[in-house]
Write a structure and sequence with these properties.
This protein has 304 residues and is an alpha/beta fold. The protein contains ten helices and twelve strands. β8, α8 and β9 form a beta-alpha-beta unit. The chain is globular, with a radius of gyration of 23 Å.
Protein backbone atom coordinates (compact mmCIF):
# COMPACT_ATOMS: atom_id res chain seq x y z
CA UNK A 1 0.00 0.00 0.00
CA UNK A 2 1.11 3.59 -0.50
CA UNK A 3 0.13 7.04 0.75
CA UNK A 4 -1.77 7.83 -2.45
CA UNK A 5 -4.18 4.99 -1.73
CA UNK A 6 -4.74 6.23 1.82
CA UNK A 7 -5.27 9.80 0.60
CA UNK A 8 -7.87 8.56 -1.88
CA UNK A 9 -9.63 6.59 0.86
CA UNK A 10 -9.80 9.57 3.19
CA UNK A 11 -10.88 11.96 0.47
CA UNK A 12 -13.76 9.67 -0.55
CA UNK A 13 -14.91 9.47 3.08
CA UNK A 14 -14.63 13.24 3.61
CA UNK A 15 -16.65 13.87 0.43
CA UNK A 16 -19.56 11.73 1.61
CA UNK A 17 -18.55 8.79 -0.63
CA UNK A 18 -18.73 10.96 -3.73
CA UNK A 19 -15.83 9.74 -5.89
CA UNK A 20 -16.23 12.60 -8.37
CA UNK A 21 -15.83 15.24 -5.65
CA UNK A 22 -12.92 13.31 -4.13
CA UNK A 23 -11.21 13.25 -7.52
CA UNK A 24 -11.64 17.03 -7.86
CA UNK A 25 -10.15 17.52 -4.40
CA UNK A 26 -7.14 15.33 -5.27
CA UNK A 27 -6.79 16.80 -8.78
CA UNK A 28 -7.25 13.35 -10.31
CA UNK A 29 -9.68 11.77 -12.74
CA UNK A 30 -12.52 9.77 -11.19
CA UNK A 31 -11.22 6.43 -12.53
CA UNK A 32 -7.85 6.98 -10.82
CA UNK A 33 -9.49 7.36 -7.41
CA UNK A 34 -11.62 4.25 -7.98
CA UNK A 35 -8.50 2.31 -8.96
CA UNK A 36 -6.65 3.45 -5.83
CA UNK A 37 -9.50 2.23 -3.64
CA UNK A 38 -9.75 -1.10 -5.51
CA UNK A 39 -6.00 -1.72 -5.28
CA UNK A 40 -6.02 -0.97 -1.57
CA UNK A 41 -8.87 -3.43 -0.99
CA UNK A 42 -7.08 -6.09 -3.04
CA UNK A 43 -3.82 -5.58 -1.19
CA UNK A 44 -5.26 -5.82 2.33
CA UNK A 45 -7.81 -8.47 1.39
CA UNK A 46 -10.99 -6.86 2.76
CA UNK A 47 -13.75 -4.63 1.43
CA UNK A 48 -13.64 -1.11 2.80
CA UNK A 49 -17.04 -0.03 1.43
CA UNK A 50 -20.49 -1.52 1.10
CA UNK A 51 -21.70 -1.15 -2.47
CA UNK A 52 -25.01 -0.93 -4.27
CA UNK A 53 -24.06 -1.71 -7.84
CA UNK A 54 -21.19 0.63 -8.65
CA UNK A 55 -22.21 3.16 -6.00
CA UNK A 56 -20.54 3.31 -2.59
CA UNK A 57 -23.17 2.92 0.13
CA UNK A 58 -21.10 3.25 3.29
CA UNK A 59 -18.01 2.04 5.11
CA UNK A 60 -17.83 -1.54 6.31
CA UNK A 61 -16.99 -1.99 10.02
CA UNK A 62 -13.39 -2.86 9.14
CA UNK A 63 -13.31 0.03 6.69
CA UNK A 64 -14.32 2.43 9.44
CA UNK A 65 -11.48 1.17 11.63
CA UNK A 66 -8.95 1.37 8.79
CA UNK A 67 -9.92 4.97 8.00
CA UNK A 68 -8.93 5.94 11.54
CA UNK A 69 -5.50 4.40 11.04
CA UNK A 70 -5.20 5.98 7.59
CA UNK A 71 -5.55 9.41 9.21
CA UNK A 72 -2.86 8.49 11.74
CA UNK A 73 -0.52 7.20 9.03
CA UNK A 74 -0.81 10.37 6.97
CA UNK A 75 -0.31 12.49 10.09
CA UNK A 76 2.85 10.57 10.95
CA UNK A 77 4.09 10.93 7.37
CA UNK A 78 3.50 14.67 7.67
CA UNK A 79 5.51 14.73 10.93
CA UNK A 80 8.44 13.15 9.07
CA UNK A 81 8.30 15.96 6.53
CA UNK A 82 8.04 18.55 9.31
CA UNK A 83 11.17 17.20 11.00
CA UNK A 84 13.05 17.55 7.73
CA UNK A 85 11.69 21.04 7.09
CA UNK A 86 12.75 22.14 10.57
CA UNK A 87 16.34 21.16 9.84
CA UNK A 88 16.33 22.75 6.39
CA UNK A 89 14.84 26.09 7.47
CA UNK A 90 12.96 26.54 10.73
CA UNK A 91 11.77 30.00 9.66
CA UNK A 92 9.72 28.82 6.67
CA UNK A 93 6.52 26.82 6.59
CA UNK A 94 2.86 27.01 7.48
CA UNK A 95 0.93 27.25 10.72
CA UNK A 96 -2.72 26.10 10.68
CA UNK A 97 -4.82 27.33 13.60
CA UNK A 98 -8.28 25.91 14.21
CA UNK A 99 -10.46 28.12 16.36
CA UNK A 100 -13.86 29.68 16.96
CA UNK A 101 -14.99 33.15 15.93
CA UNK A 102 -14.55 34.49 19.46
CA UNK A 103 -10.89 33.47 19.63
CA UNK A 104 -10.13 34.57 16.06
CA UNK A 105 -11.76 37.98 16.47
CA UNK A 106 -10.93 38.98 20.04
CA UNK A 107 -7.98 36.94 21.36
CA UNK A 108 -5.69 35.97 18.52
CA UNK A 109 -4.93 39.30 16.73
CA UNK A 110 -2.06 40.42 19.05
CA UNK A 111 -0.69 36.86 19.16
CA UNK A 112 -0.77 36.58 15.37
CA UNK A 113 0.92 39.97 15.01
CA UNK A 114 3.74 39.06 17.40
CA UNK A 115 4.25 35.68 15.74
CA UNK A 116 4.31 37.16 12.23
CA UNK A 117 6.97 39.66 13.27
CA UNK A 118 9.20 36.79 14.44
CA UNK A 119 8.37 34.44 11.56
CA UNK A 120 7.47 36.57 8.52
CA UNK A 121 8.06 33.65 6.15
CA UNK A 122 5.59 31.31 7.88
CA UNK A 123 2.14 31.37 6.29
CA UNK A 124 -0.65 31.53 8.86
CA UNK A 125 -4.03 29.94 8.22
CA UNK A 126 -7.09 30.32 10.46
CA UNK A 127 -9.69 27.57 10.17
CA UNK A 128 -12.93 28.38 11.98
CA UNK A 129 -15.42 25.81 13.19
CA UNK A 130 -17.40 24.45 16.11
CA UNK A 131 -15.41 23.08 19.05
CA UNK A 132 -16.30 19.52 18.02
CA UNK A 133 -15.18 20.19 14.45
CA UNK A 134 -11.91 21.60 15.79
CA UNK A 135 -11.28 18.41 17.79
CA UNK A 136 -11.76 16.34 14.64
CA UNK A 137 -9.50 18.63 12.60
CA UNK A 138 -6.74 18.39 15.22
CA UNK A 139 -7.03 14.59 15.43
CA UNK A 140 -6.85 14.32 11.62
CA UNK A 141 -3.90 16.75 11.46
CA UNK A 142 -5.94 19.17 9.37
CA UNK A 143 -4.88 21.92 11.79
CA UNK A 144 -1.74 22.19 13.90
CA UNK A 145 -3.54 23.62 16.92
CA UNK A 146 -7.14 23.82 18.08
CA UNK A 147 -8.08 26.71 20.37
CA UNK A 148 -11.47 26.83 22.11
CA UNK A 149 -13.23 26.36 25.44
CA UNK A 150 -15.37 23.27 24.87
CA UNK A 151 -14.59 19.70 23.77
CA UNK A 152 -10.76 19.67 23.69
CA UNK A 153 -10.23 17.90 27.01
CA UNK A 154 -12.69 15.16 26.00
CA UNK A 155 -10.20 13.47 23.64
CA UNK A 156 -7.42 11.31 25.09
CA UNK A 157 -5.51 11.63 21.81
CA UNK A 158 -4.96 15.37 22.19
CA UNK A 159 -2.45 17.22 24.34
CA UNK A 160 -4.63 19.94 25.85
CA UNK A 161 -3.11 22.89 27.73
CA UNK A 162 -5.15 25.40 29.75
CA UNK A 163 -4.40 28.92 28.54
CA UNK A 164 -6.65 31.39 30.35
CA UNK A 165 -9.87 31.73 32.33
CA UNK A 166 -12.75 34.00 31.39
CA UNK A 167 -16.25 34.78 32.53
CA UNK A 168 -19.34 36.61 31.27
CA UNK A 169 -20.64 40.15 31.05
CA UNK A 170 -24.02 41.69 30.46
CA UNK A 171 -24.47 44.14 27.59
CA UNK A 172 -27.61 46.20 27.15
CA UNK A 173 -28.96 49.47 25.85
CA UNK A 174 -28.59 52.46 28.14
CA UNK A 175 -32.33 52.70 28.82
CA UNK A 176 -32.75 49.10 30.02
CA UNK A 177 -34.67 48.82 33.29
CA UNK A 178 -32.26 46.08 34.36
CA UNK A 179 -29.69 48.82 34.97
CA UNK A 180 -31.88 50.36 37.66
CA UNK A 181 -30.59 47.78 40.13
CA UNK A 182 -27.01 47.69 41.40
CA UNK A 183 -27.24 43.98 42.17
CA UNK A 184 -28.00 41.87 39.11
CA UNK A 185 -29.01 38.34 40.10
CA UNK A 186 -29.85 35.25 38.07
CA UNK A 187 -33.48 35.68 39.06
CA UNK A 188 -33.61 39.27 37.82
CA UNK A 189 -31.75 38.29 34.65
CA UNK A 190 -34.21 35.48 33.93
CA UNK A 191 -37.03 38.04 33.74
CA UNK A 192 -35.51 39.64 30.63
CA UNK A 193 -35.25 38.35 27.05
CA UNK A 194 -31.64 37.21 26.55
CA UNK A 195 -29.43 37.09 23.47
CA UNK A 196 -26.39 34.82 23.92
CA UNK A 197 -24.30 32.03 22.42
CA UNK A 198 -25.67 29.00 20.62
CA UNK A 199 -25.23 25.50 22.08
CA UNK A 200 -21.67 24.24 21.73
CA UNK A 201 -20.04 27.68 21.74
CA UNK A 202 -18.47 29.92 24.36
CA UNK A 203 -19.73 28.21 27.49
CA UNK A 204 -23.42 27.88 26.62
CA UNK A 205 -23.74 24.53 28.43
CA UNK A 206 -22.36 26.01 31.67
CA UNK A 207 -24.65 29.02 31.21
CA UNK A 208 -27.70 26.71 31.00
CA UNK A 209 -26.58 24.55 33.91
CA UNK A 210 -26.08 27.59 36.16
CA UNK A 211 -29.70 28.67 35.69
CA UNK A 212 -30.93 25.09 36.08
CA UNK A 213 -29.16 24.65 39.42
CA UNK A 214 -30.82 27.85 40.61
CA UNK A 215 -34.23 26.50 39.60
CA UNK A 216 -34.60 29.14 36.90
CA UNK A 217 -35.17 29.14 33.16
CA UNK A 218 -33.61 31.94 31.09
CA UNK A 219 -35.68 33.56 28.33
CA UNK A 220 -33.39 32.94 25.35
CA UNK A 221 -34.89 34.81 22.39
CA UNK A 222 -31.90 34.46 20.06
CA UNK A 223 -28.59 32.60 20.08
CA UNK A 224 -25.57 32.85 17.79
CA UNK A 225 -22.00 31.62 17.46
CA UNK A 226 -20.74 35.11 16.64
CA UNK A 227 -20.47 37.75 19.38
CA UNK A 228 -20.88 40.54 16.83
CA UNK A 229 -24.26 39.08 15.87
CA UNK A 230 -25.29 39.07 19.53
CA UNK A 231 -24.32 42.74 19.83
CA UNK A 232 -26.28 43.60 16.69
CA UNK A 233 -29.52 42.17 18.07
CA UNK A 234 -29.01 43.75 21.48
CA UNK A 235 -28.67 47.08 19.68
CA UNK A 236 -31.92 46.35 17.84
CA UNK A 237 -33.70 46.11 21.19
CA UNK A 238 -34.37 42.38 21.01
CA UNK A 239 -33.05 41.72 24.51
CA UNK A 240 -30.09 41.98 26.85
CA UNK A 241 -26.91 40.20 25.86
CA UNK A 242 -24.71 37.80 27.81
CA UNK A 243 -21.26 37.62 26.19
CA UNK A 244 -17.72 36.53 27.05
CA UNK A 245 -16.16 39.39 29.00
CA UNK A 246 -13.17 39.75 26.63
CA UNK A 247 -15.43 40.45 23.64
CA UNK A 248 -16.56 43.92 24.74
CA UNK A 249 -14.49 46.51 22.88
CA UNK A 250 -14.65 49.89 24.58
CA UNK A 251 -14.04 52.01 21.49
CA UNK A 252 -16.58 50.15 19.35
CA UNK A 253 -19.19 49.20 21.93
CA UNK A 254 -19.54 52.40 23.94
CA UNK A 255 -23.23 52.58 22.95
CA UNK A 256 -23.81 49.45 25.03
CA UNK A 257 -23.64 49.38 28.82
CA UNK A 258 -21.38 46.67 30.30
CA UNK A 259 -21.96 44.89 33.62
CA UNK A 260 -19.72 42.16 35.01
CA UNK A 261 -21.49 38.84 35.74
CA UNK A 262 -18.52 36.84 37.05
CA UNK A 263 -20.13 36.47 40.48
CA UNK A 264 -23.10 34.67 38.92
CA UNK A 265 -21.35 32.11 36.69
CA UNK A 266 -18.41 29.68 37.04
CA UNK A 267 -15.19 30.68 35.33
CA UNK A 268 -14.46 28.96 32.00
CA UNK A 269 -11.09 27.78 30.71
CA UNK A 270 -9.90 28.14 27.12
CA UNK A 271 -7.30 25.60 25.97
CA UNK A 272 -4.88 25.07 23.12
CA UNK A 273 -4.49 21.50 21.91
CA UNK A 274 -2.64 19.41 19.35
CA UNK A 275 -2.43 15.76 18.35
CA UNK A 276 -0.58 13.72 20.95
CA UNK A 277 2.04 12.16 18.64
CA UNK A 278 2.47 15.25 16.46
CA UNK A 279 5.96 16.60 15.86
CA UNK A 280 6.00 20.29 16.75
CA UNK A 281 8.28 22.45 14.67
CA UNK A 282 10.20 25.21 16.43
CA UNK A 283 7.91 27.93 15.11
CA UNK A 284 4.88 25.94 16.32
CA UNK A 285 6.37 25.64 19.79
CA UNK A 286 7.06 29.37 19.73
CA UNK A 287 3.42 30.07 18.84
CA UNK A 288 2.29 28.20 21.95
CA UNK A 289 4.66 30.28 24.09
CA UNK A 290 3.42 33.52 22.56
CA UNK A 291 -0.21 32.52 22.92
CA UNK A 292 0.14 31.49 26.57
CA UNK A 293 1.98 34.66 27.54
CA UNK A 294 0.05 37.14 25.39
CA UNK A 295 -3.49 36.24 26.37
CA UNK A 296 -2.86 36.85 30.05
CA UNK A 297 -1.93 40.46 29.27
CA UNK A 298 -5.38 41.07 27.83
CA UNK A 299 -8.03 42.71 30.00
CA UNK A 300 -10.57 40.42 31.66
CA UNK A 301 -8.50 37.23 31.34
CA UNK A 302 -6.84 35.45 34.26
CA UNK A 303 -4.38 32.58 34.66
CA UNK A 304 -5.94 29.09 34.69
Amino acid sequence: MDLKQLKSLISVVENNLNISQAADQLHLVQSAVSQQISRLEEEIGVKLFNRKGKRLAGLTPVGDEIVDYAYRTLANANSILEIAHDHINEFEGMLRIGTTHTQAQYILPPVIKAFSQEYPEVELQIHQGTPQQLVTKALHDEVDFAICTEALSESKDLVSMPSYNWNRSLITLKDSTLLETDNITLEKLSNYPIVTYVHGFTGREVFNETFKKAGLKPQIVLSAADTDVIKTYVRSGMGVGVIANMTYVTDKDSDLVLRDLSELFPWETTKIAYKKDKYLRRHQQRFIDLFQSSVLKQEGLVAP
